[in-house]
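note to self: the first set is below, dont mix up w the second
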Amino acid sequence: METSPQPRQRLSRRRLVQSLGIAPFLGLIDVAQAVAGVGGANADLGGSWRRAIDQDDTGLGQRWFARALADRLPLPGSLEQRGVGNPVRLTTPWTGDINDRSFFNAPDYARYRAADDFKVPFFLQPDSWYRGPAWYQRDIDIPASWRGKRVELFLERPHWETQVWLDDRLVGRSDALHVPHRHDLGIVEPGRRRLTIRVDNRMIVEIGHNGHGVTDHTQGNWNGIAGRIELRATEPVWIERVDLHPALAERTLTVRGTLRRIAGAPPLGAAEVVFAGRSTRGTVTWTGGQGAFEVAIRPSDAAAMRTWDEFNPVLHEVTVRLAKGEAWKGRFGWRELAATPSGFTLNDRPVMFRGALECAIFPLTGHPATDIGSWRRIMRRVKDYGLNHLRFHSYCPPEAAFDAADEAGVYVQVETVWANQSSRIGSGLPVDQWVYAETDRILAAHGNHPSFMLMTHGNEPGGGKTKEGEAKRDAFLGAYVRHYRGLDARRLWTSGAGWPLIEDNQFHLTPTPRVQNWGEGLKSRINSKPPETQTDYRDFIGQYRVPVISHEIGQWCVYPNLEERRKYTGYLKAKNFDIFADRLRDSGLAGQAPEFLHASGRLQVLCYKEDIESALRTHGMGGFQLLGLQDFPGQGTALVGVVDPFWDDKGYVTGQEYQRFCAPTVPLARMPARVLQSGQPFPFAVDIAHFGAAPIENADIEWRVQAADGAELAQGVFPSRTVALGNAPIGLSAAPVLTAPRATTAKLIVGVRRGGRVLAQNDWDLWVYPAAVPREAGGRVRRADRIDQALLDHLAQGGDALIGLPGAKVANYAERPVQLGFSSIFWNTLWTQGQAPTTLGVLCDPAHPALADFPTETHSNWQWWYLMHRAGALRLDLLPPGVEPIVRVIDDWFTARPLGLVIEVSVGKGRAIVCGFALDGAEAQDPVSRQLVASLERYMQGEAFRPAARVSADQLRRLAAP
């Protein structure tokens, strides 16, 4: 079933719900009340509005603007926030793809398809939805003090198209999606007027139904007006636009302004520009009703030339004045961003973009915040985790986001569309023209912000999946980049987020340089190659003459935090989490949700650490953009964040820990292996990724290897040096011999110190194992690689068995088979058609006596790679209830099946431990595998080996594939 909305669809009146949730607002403000205190320049129109739902799209023909509407609704806000619209059902025409159709027909989803308890697993779910026109209306009083003034209606964030009438006169239409709508009402005589706004949230232009400006996967396709709703009075000659162009190298600020005048208004000859206490007049040149001026200012005051960056985000104010009191105020920052073959520079200093995505995820309102406080918190959280960059995926945020980024020193990338799947770019479709128009509008609204540093037309552009279509796409995007490079040099331009890598780009965004690419599954580096910290992307980066930013790296999932559901008190509800909670309960695992969250979260963090460090140790790389720091609640529920959709921590990592490997200054260790043999050299090299405010002079780079019990296995300090800006290799290395009497976890800790103060520190987990692991003597324990009759007879007679089933020989599920790997789930399995791995690591108790000689934490760490990459998950649902695994495998939350890696059971008179991996053979000769097997054997020889769970011979046999 297609999920994209049909253009101008008609909605059945019988299916329309008008929630009692709006009842408390009916008496807020008398809709006939005059706009109070409108003698000033602006009048706030927030409050109670009359409204009507136009589900049959008949309002235009029936001239609804000419009559008083009956119902009421508070604005700013949306219909959906007030529960006005249609109930969510199986036939809801969602905006956005639904890749996995199993929800619509699979028996295990049947209970959620019922109308009285409808729940979808794809994304957060509204209580109601509406697609189509809605009409909003109120009476306004134009005061006598506005006589002769020009009046504008300002709508900060409508969604989407607006048409405006003043009384019966059509004022205008706007299809801007990401910037305010400004409707010129002209000269309005004082007195009472009827103001009517028609808002249409259908796909006005087919820009791609997965784009985050429109899709139900994130903010939702809402109908209404968010933010400021104002009448603004100006003089007959007014300031339409001011563009501030700082040229740092020339120490020159160029101010370009556009004026307009109503018919018959005398033109003004000059504009006054005030900056740094100095006033400069600019001559206005008029062409009909439009005037223009340009002023170049070269300040002599050093304070007026203080630069803007992430460390010192200094902002300067500019005022433009006209005669009769008309004025404009704005801010800018002195900064110069350049792209070079060896990376970016900002103000002649190397800079690396450490970024994350923001995808219009605002569950309480369903639309992006328009207040500065909310965005200040978001920017603070970005910096809490050591980032300096935020990419707005396929949308542009409101003004408050830019203001907050300016203040915090966060570097912003903006986009307009995601023209793929339901659309394509460059083929002459309406989206092509709209992208240009929307880019122009974004530059007009936000172009002066110093935080606004990067721009592309949009995300992952489609060309119709043909060579001809892709050639047209690339030609269109090349022309787009060339056009805007010439028009606005205040930021850098590229063709698309993800692709194409065309010659015109000033920088490239590409998914190639990352730990795991889309579709790689178990063939990715993290799942197919032993752990190391040497890999970088220098060979890939070296092919290009412009900087490369890696696109959407990470995408590592964590188990749902079911406690999070209580936060969803607004427009969108986490009913998908209800489904996941039911899955756990049905599998008898409900009590383990917090443990699954923590264990999978620690695995997620180490995956992100390797992704980020791989980028940081690549000399000349432009940066990375994480997907993401925050959870992405759509596209099948992609729980990829270390913070939740509300930007709150989840409890398994803090920003302080994250900053050890993601910060302006990060020590890096290049290690060929993390698993070491006692008594052998441990070679490693040290680099420093230093993109701070200045070089670090007289820096001491120190290192130590510390065992889990605190014992120091080795240490050293390199000679003092200056740490230059950038991440070029610095040629420091060591090769200490590590000796440990027994298997131990250790850490390599590298720090940068100056004058006794630690400026940066990072660490890497290691495992040191004895050179030889003797087998435990004793004839009762038999090793086996299959469950055959001879083994069952041995157990029946009271023998013990350590059974290691090769991964391919472990019984699996016919539908949605478990695909075991080391890493966390990539994005999620629902959106990727079950891309491997489908698990979230292991969960165990390090204090279990079976693991006494196998150093581990409660969760997967790098040593588990040697077991997980060749293992199969044991199906505990084939055994009686009560089998508690020694090592559990955490299944995908969509299936939440009970799985084990190592279990213990009683069979007949005997006892057995069953492992989902081979005990012997060439693939089991690594130190990790040998150490775990030895630990299990020692446990089986001791008094503590008393399996509580009893299974039959037939049940045991089921664990092996037939």
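second set (the one i keep forgetting abt)
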Amino acid sequence: MPDMSSSAALAMTHLVPLAEVDENKVTPGVLGFIVFAVMALAVWGLMKSMSKQMNKVDFKEGSDPKAGSKAESRVESESAPAEPKAKQG
């Protein structure tokens, strides 16, 4: 080797074990990648479907022209007794 400092040589010796592949280690391999990719696609599809369903929801409240404010209409609706529905049949 050409003229190398001791710190560079020490750094090279620490990096060599990282580059070696140990045959005794268990890795996820191709099957692990495929399972991960399928799960990622499933999550993407579910998120897309949820977004489509959430866009269908109307979050706007209907305004009541008779009531002055939302607080007044809420108080009126709470104080008024509920009317029983007529039985059908």
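remember for set 2: The radius of gyration is 34 Å.
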